[in-house]
From TrEMBL:
InterPro entries: ADH-like_C, ADH-like_N, ER, GroES-like_sf, NAD(P)-bd_dom_sf, Trans-enoyl_RdTase-like. CDD domains: enoyl_reductase_like (cd08249). Residues 12-339 form the Enoyl reductase (ER) domain. The lineage of its organism: Eukaryota, Fungi, Dikarya, Basidiomycota, Agaricomycotina. GO terms for molecular function: oxidoreductase activity, acting on NAD(P)H. This is Enoyl reductase (ER) domain-containing protein. It comes from the Eukaryota.
């Protein structure tokens, strides 16, 4: 007999979301089954619906940010047991998305949740944190290739080096700021709406500049902050406009990380990198399992990484539909929308 549960299903390519019964998978070797208590939304979810790509077929369950309880462990899994509170990132596979009541996940990319944090808070972390971490610490052409702060010697290693982060109030931007602080970067300069300036300084940036500044105006502001060359620019927005401005302010010999496919071309003096959010492809398969499995718990517990602001959507999985519409309309700022699948009627 096939077990089923409630899921937010995309029945076909470019289809409309519907809450429906969906087969419940059993965990295989090295996997765990998670009872999903909280699932956060990301812009990629509505983009997949509109433009396709990433998924391996339909009907599909989308969603990348998972927090919940271990329901069952697969063969060989020793570090988790039934009832453990965990979080992790959904895979871009039609049965492995977050928007369902139960989901199978790899144990190697799952972390326990520190006691002081809720499911809702933990669910705001995975996809944006993966993107920020990968862009900073993956080897080129997917990141800057910095040494990750996983040892005492690496913490603060880049002290005195400036970094500019576009879109500091975005989820990826906020985690990039926090990781850059742990790595020692200073000054940490970000572009954002100035109404978020105090909050962004609280998590580690030293200067917040108006996101609407032109290349020339931004360069002028940066030159008042530091006389050192800008060799690291992380564009967590990566629109056509921000990509060009980021390229303009980068100093010769520097690197940019984009989170969307580049629309500008690298030169001999300015290199371009593209950060992947997917856990299941290189280069993330090389370093993300160790980060999630062995280090991310302590990063959160120490306060090096803090969860995003949260708005809980009503009506369980049904509330995701309206939430994705708000994301598409760009009506969400410095906030993660979170659904609770177990509250689905």
């Amino acid at each position: 007999m096939t077990l089923t549960h409630k899921a937010l299903v995309l029945p076909e390519q470019f289809g409309k979301f519907v809450v429906a019964d969906f087969p419940r998978e059993a965990p295989g070797p090295g996997e765990i089954l998670i009872k999903v208590q909280s699932a956060a939304l990301n812009p990629v979810d509505w983009k997949i619906q509109k433009w396709d790509g990433l998924m391996d077929g339909y009907p599909a369950v989308l969603g990348s940010d998972i927090a919940g309880d271990v329901e069952e462990v697969g063969e060989g899994v020793k570090e988790f047991k039934k009832g453990d509170r965990v979080f992790g990132q959904g895979e871009f596979r039609k049965t492995r998305g977050a928007f369902q009541q139960y989901v199978v996940s790899s144990a190697s990319t799952t972390s326990k949740i520190p006691p002081k944090f809720s499911y809702d808070e933990a669910s705001t972390l995975p996809m944006a944190l993966t993107t920020a971490y990968s862009g900073l610490y993956s080897k080129p052409p997917n990141g800057f290739g910095l040494e990750a702060p996983l040892t005492d010697a690496a913490v603060g290693k880049y002290s005195g080096n400036p970094i500019v982060i576009f879109g500091g109030s975005s989820s990826v931007g906020q985690f990039t700021i926090q990781l850059a602080k742990v790595s020692g970067f200073s000054p940490i300069i970000t572009t954002a709406s100035l109404r978020h300036a105090d909050a962004l300084k609280d998590i580690g940036c030293t200067h917040v500049l108006d996101r609407n500044l032109s290349s020339d105006a931004l360069n002028a502001e940066i030159s008042q902050i530091t006389t050192k060359p800008i060799h690291h620019v992380y564009d967590s927005i990566s629109s056509d406009l921000t990509q060009q401005i980021a390229f303009d302010i980068l100093s010769p010999g520097g690197r940019i990380v984009y989170v969307s496919f580049p629309t500008v071309k690298a030169t001999e003096e300015k290199q371009i990198n593209f950060a992947y959010a997917k856990l299941t492809i290189p280069p993330n398969t090389e370093h993300m399992p160790a980060f999630y499995h062995d280090h991310v718990y302590s990063f959160i517990e120490k306060g090096w990484i803090t969860p995003n602001n949260i708005e809980v959507l009503p009506n369980g999985l049904a509330g995701v539909i309206e939430g994705l519409q708000r994301l598409e309309a760009d009506k969400v700022s410095r906030l993660k929308l979170v659904a609770r699948p177990q509250e689905t009627d």
